[in-house]
Design a protein that fits this description.
The complex is a heterodimer of chains A (227) and B (293). Chain A is 29% helix and 36% strand. Chain A has 227 residues and is an alpha+beta fold. In chain A, the strands form two sheets. In chain A, strands 3-2-4-5-6-7 form a six-stranded mixed sheet. In chain A, a hairpin with a 2-residue loop joins strand 6 and strand 7. In chain A, helix 2 (21-37) packs parallel to helix 4 (62-70). The two termini of chain A are 26 Å apart. Chain B has one domain (8-292). Helix content of chain B is 62%, strand content 1%. Chain B contains 13 helices and one strand, in the order H-H-H-H-H-E-H-H-H-H-H-H-H-H. Classes of the chains: A alpha+beta (227), B mainly alpha (293). Chains A and B meet through helix 1, strand 1, helix 2, helix 3 and strand 5 of A and helix 2, helix 3, helix 5, strand 1 and helix 7 of B.
């Protein structure tokens, strides 16, 4: 059981284009966050639906929703219904797959987005947990926990002493409170990913400073989907 | 101040500790988490209430027809019917309005998920029917009407915290069932019942949705979802009527939600939004799925 109830506006919402909060709105939100994590212009996307989503995505417009999210369109935006046409006009290559079984640990409403743009490759897995609420579960194989309610910073770095401390100092100096902070590494001394959710807006100056921390390879800002 | 709660008992205690009514406490809590003012939360609440009315007006303006052919303007038919056995304006409107809002959703129109899209007609249907038939001074900007939507949300928040609002996890009891409980509490609030009686109305309502399957034909949010919105509006009104008469739920709300969770867990996947059981695999259901594929 979660430790706390959702908020009033989480429950009475989202404002959205029908027909399914978990299979339309939630999927659009997951794809929207994934697109924000990819730093280069998107060229190709493979969208894989698992479980309940694999069985019902056609009727729920989950494909349109996922494509909309990849175009930066949120669930409230009427353009969601025309997202495939917009994507085609913009020359995006989109492939949609269904995996009925999927790994057992996956939530029944899981979508995996594999994105390509320039030299960048990104794989994001997310779950739509009901009423439009979502959880990003992994980013490029790193465990991550994001619900999109707060702005977040993702920092890819070498697993070495002091990176987290320096990032925390930068955030403190910017007056940003850390709401959650998690770091997972592939292996000792290998690459690691920090996911930090913060209360407030993240400036580009802060992101540049974070990118200059010794050992940091990449910094990405993920905005809130709710503000 | 303590902003955490996962049970109705917690919630009432937190609001009481803060010296606030339940609705004011929840608005203040949202302002705290969003880092904004209570006025900003109320403004957004009013905006969303207004959108529920837009969905309703859209659904009433013309028959809603979905691409699958499964949604064919039932709200319009019911509103125009001279054969209804229901004489009460409020009750009749609640059924029509719940259908109208949900038909807009089925046709890919704009709605507010409350708590989900497939159940989005139930609370607005009941509350706007009350406003139109009984209390025309209510509106998106009136505190009383906002509090009714907030009371509905409180019930949904508790179901989310203690169980689930996803049909894929808990079946339709988690979606239309939760929405009926929400509407029961909100209507009780508009009728002037105590907060405890509102929560009890939610318990009465939810008990009568336990075990409800989510078996949508062709996986679409149409059959049985759309018409179920009207049936659940009736459920909510029944519950509020009982609560207003002083009838108490034998099982308290928090325990009913616990039962909902365990029932959801023991339901087979075929009845949890997979379109692989129940109505979805009837000969007619399968034929529909075949036709639109």
């Amino acid at each position: 059981m979660p430790e706390n109830a959702p908020t009033l506006l989480d429950l009475f919402g989202p404002v959205m284009i029908g027909p399914s909060s978990s299979h339309t709105a939630g999927v659009a939100r997951i794809a929207y966050l994934a697109r924000k994590i990819l730093k280069t212009p998107l060229e190709r996307a493979r969208i894989t639906f698992y479980g309940s989503l694999a069985r019902t995505w056609k009727g729920h417009g989950s494909d349109k929703a996922a494509i909309a999210g990849l175009l930066g369109i949120l669930p409230e935006d009427e353009r969601l219904a025309f997202a495939p046409e917009i994507a085609q006009r913009e020359g995006l290559e989109i492939e949609i797959l269904s995996d009925y079984a999927g790994p057992e640990r996956y939530h029944t409403n899981t979508v995996v987005l594999e994105l390509e743009g320039g030299d960048e490759r990104l794989r994001v897995r997310g779950s739509s947990i009901g009423g439009g609420e979502i959880r990003l579960k992994s980013v490029n194989g790193f465990q991550a926990e994001l619900d999109g309610g707060l702005a977040a910073i993702l920092v890819l770095h070498h697993d070495e002493v002091g990176v987290i401390a320096e990032l925390a100092s930068l955030l403190a100096a910017a007056g940003l409170n850390i709401a959650s902070l998690a770091s997972h590494r592939r292996d000792k001394g290998d690459e690691a990913l920090i996911v930090a959710e913060v209360d407030g807006a993240v400036s580009s100056r802060l992101l540049e400073a974070a990118a200059r921390i010794h050992g940091v390879l990449d910094v990405v800002h993920v905005p809130s989907i709710k503000s | 101040m303590n902003w955490k709660f996962t049970s109705s008992i917690d919630l009432l205690a937190r609001a009481g500790d803060a010296g606030l009514g339940l609705c004011d406490y929840l608005v203040k809590r949202d302002a705290f988490y969003a880092g904004t003012s209570e006025e900003a939360i109320r403004a957004e609440l009013a905006r969303r209430i207004r959108i529920t009315r837009h969905s309703l007006d859209e659904g009433m303006s013309r028959p809603q027809l979905s691409f699958s052919g499964l949604t064919v303007g039932a709200a319009h038919s019911l509103a125009a019917s001279a054969n209804s056995p229901v004489a009460d304006e409020f009750f009749g409107k609640a059924l029509v309005y719940a259908l109208a809002v949900n038909e807009v959703n089925a046709c890919g129109g704009k709605i507010v998920a409350f708590p989900t899209a497939g159940s989005c007609g139930i609370v607005p249907g009941v509350l706007w029917a009350w406003r139109d038939a009984r209390s025309p001074s209510l509106g998106p900007d009136s505190r009383v009407f906002q509090d009714a939507f907030t009371m509905a949300s409180a019930i949904g928040m508790l179901v989310a915290a203690r169980a689930t609002l996803a049909g894929a996890e808990g079946g339709c009891q988690a979606e239309c069932g939760a929405a009926a409980a929400m509407a029961a509490a909100a209507l009780s609030q508009l009728m002037g019942l105590s907060t405890e009686a509102c929560i009890d109305a939610a318990a009465l309502s939810l008990k009568n949705c336990l075990g409800l399957a989510c078996d949508p034909v062709a996986g679409l949010v149409e059959v049985p979802c759309v018409k179920r919105n009207a049936f659940m509006a009736a459920n909510a009104i029944t519950a509020a009527s009982l609560a207003a008469a002083g009838v108490r739920s034998a099982i308290p709300f928090d325990e009913v939600v616990g039962a909902m969770k365990s029932i959801g867990a023991s339901m087979p996947a075929s009845l949890k939004e997979s379109a692989e059981g129940g109505l979805a695999v009837t000969p007619t259901g399968l034929a529909v799925a075949q036709r639109i594929r």
